[in-house]
Amino acid sequence: MATFPSRWAVSQRAVVSECRVTVPVMPIRPVVSLITLGVHDVAASTRFYELLGFERSSSSVAGEVSFFRTPGSILALWGAAELAADANVAPRSGDAFRGAALAINLASPADVDAALAGAQAAGAVITRPARAVEWGGYSGYFADPDGHVWEVAHNPFWPLDDRGLPQLPD
Questions:
Q1: What is the pTM (predicted TM-score) of this model?
Q2: Which parts of the chain sit beneath pLDDT 50?
């Protein structure tokens, strides 16, 4: 059983909230296979993510779309206007927070500090320096050149597997 606020209980097949039961309706296994970030300059953003250590796939098309291998899902960079058009939504304007953060979990607070320093050296803006946080971990945030926010965290309650992915308790 995962730990959530007291009004939530989670099982493998259903979420019980207050007196309602929600059963999944999509007939697929829910996985995040690809995350696409809409960017203003694919080439510049590709260079930024390569400086962070992301490995670009040969399936990328220079200046149009870049794909990066990770131990989990694939990270893609595509023009923001093209992504908005493809999704049939209005493009966002300005630098407002997008309501989402990506995360990299690491083995120690020292690793978090080193990762944030590396991100800043690659051109990221540190939006919140690393610090001990109320849930018992250690984390900080940076924004990429397009304002996509990344959390870099050490969570002592989620051990990392041999691929560097956090392992959630049952």
A1: 0.82
A2: 1-14, 16
Two tokens, residue 77: 């960079």
Would you say the C-alpha torsion 48, 49, 54, 57 has a positive or negative sign? negative
Spatial strand order of the sheet with 15-17 comes to 8-10, 15-17, 20-22
What is the DSSP code string of the chain? Answer: -----TTEEE-SS-EEETTEEE---SSS-----EEEEEES-HHHHHHHHHHTTPEEPTT-BTTTEEEEE-SSSEEEEEEHHHHHHHHT-PPP-SS---S-EEEEE-SSHHHHHHHHHHHHHHT-EEEEEEEE-TTS-EEEEEE-TT--EEEEEE-TTS-B-TTS-B----
pLDDT at 87: 94
Say what the pLDDT of residue 12 is. 42
Tell me which residue of 32, 34, 75, 31 sits closest to 52, measured CA to CA. Answer: 75
Largest CA distance in the chain: 52
